[in-house]
Specification:
The complex is a heterodimer of chains A (245) and B (67). By secondary structure, chain A is of the alpha/beta class. Chain A has helices at residues 24-38, 72-82, 95-101, 103-112, 152-155, 161-165, 182-200, 215-218, 222-236, and strands spanning 3-5, 44-48, 63-66, 88-94, 117-122, 173-178, 206-211, 240-244. Chain A has one domain: Thiamin diphosphate (ThDP)-binding fold, Pyr/PP domains (Rossmann fold), CATH 3.40.50.970. Chain A is built from nine helices and eight strands. The radius of gyration of chain A is 17 Å and the shape is globular. Chain B has two helices and four strands; from the N terminus they run βαββαβ. Chain B has a two-stranded antiparallel sheet. In chain B, strands 2-3 form a two-stranded antiparallel sheet. Chain B has helices at 16-20, 53-57; strands at residues 3-6, 26-32, 38-42, 63-66. Chain B has one domain (3-66): Alpha-Beta Plaits (2-Layer Sandwich), CATH 3.30.70.20. Classes of the chains: A alpha/beta (245), B alpha+beta (67). At the A-B interface, strand 1, helix 1, helix 7 and helix 9 of A face helix 1, helix 2 and strand 4 of B.
C-alpha cells in the first residue's frame, strides 16, 4: 500500500493548541507542506505576531521569532535585510495583530516592497483575548465589546486589507483565499506556495489573506461557523487574487 | 483498496472531515481520546475512494490516506 497523503515532515507532531474547528490548524499544515515541497526548512525563519498565532510556534520545525504585538512586519524587515541572502522570512499574523495595532507596520512594509511573505489569517475577531471586536468584525456581528452587534455609525465598517494594500505601488502578490472547504484549501495552498516562490525569486512583498472561522468566540459549532463563513464573512470579504505580477 | 488512518490522539472531533467526505466514510465515535474528544472513526471503509478531501480539510493533521 502506498501512502497518498501524509502529515508533512516539517511539522511537529503535537496535539494542537487550537479550539476544535479553528482553521489556523489548516493554515499551519499548508505552510509546513509548502516548506517541505520547496525544500527550504533549514533556511526559513517565521516571525509570529501576538494572539492565537502564537500557538503555532509549537508546530513549526523552522526557526521562530516572536515579535511585539503588530510589529512582525518590522521585525521581518530587519531580519530579511541583515540575514544571509537565501534566508526565507515569513510573518504569521491574525487580524487583530495585522489590521489593528500593526496597521502602520504592514502598510509601510508593503509600501517599501520588502521581500518577505505575510500569512494573514482573518477570523473577524480577537480570538485569544476573548472575542473582542476587531477591525474586521462585520457590521451587526456580536462581540464581547459590542454586545448588541457592531454599529457602523459608531465604530465604522470592517477593514479590507487586500483592497487597502492594493492601492500601493510596491506589493507583488495580494490574494484572499479561504479554508472553508477542501477545494478552497487546495487553492489556499497554491496561493501560499506562490507567495513563498515570489520571495525566493526576489520579486518582493507577497501577502495571502486567509479567511478563517472562530467557533469559540462566534458562539457557534464548527459546522455552523463554516456555514456562517460562507453566508456572511466570505460575502463581505470577496475571495480573489487582487494583484499578481 | 484505499485505507483511511486516523490519529485518534490529535483528533478534536470538529467534524470538518465528515463535512468534506463525499462518500460518508467517517463518523464521530463513542470513545474519547486523552483530550476528551469523541474522535472520528471510519464506519464505511469500503466506500472510500482515496480522494483525500477529509485529510486536506483536517485542521489537526490527524488523517493519513493509503491506496
Amino acid at each position: 500500500m502506498e501512502k497518498v497523503y501524509s502529515v508533512p515532515s516539517t511539522k511537529h507532531e503535537v496535539v494542537g493548541g487550537f479550539c476544535p474547528g479553528c482553521l489556523h490548524g489548516v493554515v499551519v499544515k499548508l505552510v509546513c507542506e509548502v516548506q517541505e515541497e520547496l525544500g527550504i526548512l533549514d533556511r526559513t525563519v517565521c516571525v509570529v505576531g501576538v494572539g492565537c498565532c502564537c500557538i503555532t510556534a509549537r508546530h513549526w520545525k523552522c526557526d521562530v521569532m516572536n515579535a511585539p504585538h503588530g510589529r512582525a512586519p518590522a521585525v521581518a524587515t530587519g531580519l530579511k535585510r541583515m540575514a544571509p541572502k537565501d534566508t526565507v522570512v515569513y510573518t504569521y499574523q491574525g487580524d487583530g495583530d495585522l489590521a489593528a495595532i500593526g496597521l502602520s507596520e504592514i502598510m509601510y512594509a508593503a509600501n517599501r516592497g520588502e521581500n518577505f511573505t505575510v500569512i494573514f489569517v482573518n477570523n473577524s475577531t480577537y480570538g485569544m483575548t476573548g472575542g473582542q471586536m476587531a477591525p474586521t468584525t462585520l457590521v451587526g456581528m456580536k462581540a464581547t465589546t459590542a454586545p448588541f452587534g457592531r454599529k457602523a455609525e459608531d465604530v465604522g465598517y470592517p477593514l479590507h486589507m487586500c483592497e487597502i494594500l492594493n492601492q500601493l505601488g510596491a506589493p507583488t502578490y495580494l490574494a484572499r483565499v479561504s479554508c472553508d472547504s477542501s477545494p478552497n484549501v487546495i487553492k489556499t495552498k497554491a496561493a501560499i506556495k506562490k507567495a513563498f516562490q515570489n520571495q525566493i525569486d526576489g520579486k518582493g512583498f507577497s501577502l495571502v489573506e486567509i479567511m478563517s472561522a472562530c467557533p469559540t468566540n462566534w458562539g457557534l459549532s464548527p459546522l455552523d461557523s463554516i456555514k456562517f463563513m460562507r453566508e456572511k464573512t466570505m460575502v463581505e470579504f470577496p475571495l480573489g487574487v487582487y494583484r499578481d505580477r | 483498496m484505499p485505507k483511511v488512518e486516523i490519529n485518534s490522539k490529535v483528533c478534536k472531533a470538529c467534524e470538518l472531515c465528515i463535512l468534506n467526505c463525499p462518500k460518508g466514510v467517517l463518523a464521530l465515535g463513542k470513545e474519547s481520546n486523552p483530550s476528551g474528544y469523541h474522535y472520528v472513526t471510519v464506519v464505511n471503509q469500503d466506500a472510500c475512494i482515496a480522494c483525500k478531501m477529509c485529510a486536506i480539510a483536517c485542521p489537526d493533521a490527524a488523517i493519513e490516506i493509503y491506496k
